[in-house]
Amino acid sequence: MTQLLPLSPEFFAQNTLWVAKRLLGKHLMVWDADAHDHIVCRIVETEAYTQNDPACHAHKSTTGRAATLYKEPGLAYVYFIYGMYYCLNVVTEPTGTAGAVLFRALEPVYNPTPRELKTHGPGRLCKALNITKDRHNERLLTDPSQPLYLADGITYPDAQIITTTRIGISQAQEYPWRFYVDQNPWV
Q1: Contact 152/7 with Cβ under 8 angstroms?
Q2: Cα angle: 102, vertex 105, 109; to 5 degrees
């Protein structure tokens, strides 16, 4: 598989809602050491979180795990939830302003190994792609030398993108900050 061009840090240094919507159709490239090749997945569902959002980890804090959200745009933010799942996010907004986009579903495009990838749901996709906090948190997702990075892809027309409320959270559920590709079977 040829290496796809990475997204630039400037792409992520923008409004979180804009980034969340524009990430649809882009690719998450995950290095598979066993196959000596990348697993390529198209992003088909995202959710946005900002520092003014009660559901965001950075809403009331700038320290601990929230500190990552204030760092440079394009960083991976991986956290552990329910004592069993990792969730992958990418940091957005200019440095000093917290924001992140959660990856909710990926459509496998290229898999060099003969295994099924269950990439619908933030915990499942991290498990399927072996994404963990120890190995991937605070990795620069704009650098193709990293074990995972974000690459260019297709641009879906607005008519094909559904905007709706977020799911799986207890606060600010009414925010229409979830985006997904209409009729995509991986959502």
Answers
A1: yes
A2: 125
Closest listed residue to residue 73, CA positions, set 97, 94, 59, 55: 94
b/e burial code for range 3-28 (CB count within 10 A of at least 16 → b): ebebbebebbbeebbebbbbbbbbbb
Other beta carbons within 10 angstroms of residue 110's beta carbon come to 14
Token pair in block for residue 80: 């552990």
The torsion angles phi and psi of 106, rounded to 5 degrees, stand at -130, 145
**pTM attached to this predicted model:** 0.95
Per-residue pLDDT of the chain (187 residues; tens, 9 = 90+): 567 999 999 999 999 999 999 999 999 999 998 889 999 999 999 999 999 998 888 988 888 889 999 999 999 999 998 888 999 999 999 999 999 999 999 999 999 887 889 999 999 999 999 999 999 999 999 999 999 999 999 999 999 999 999 998 888 989 999 999 999 999 9
User: Which one-letter DSSP state was computed for residue 120?
Assistant: B
Question: Which amino acid is present at 109?
Answer: V
DSSP class of 57:
T
Q: Which residues contact 22 (CB under 8 A, 6 or more apart)?
A: 11, 155
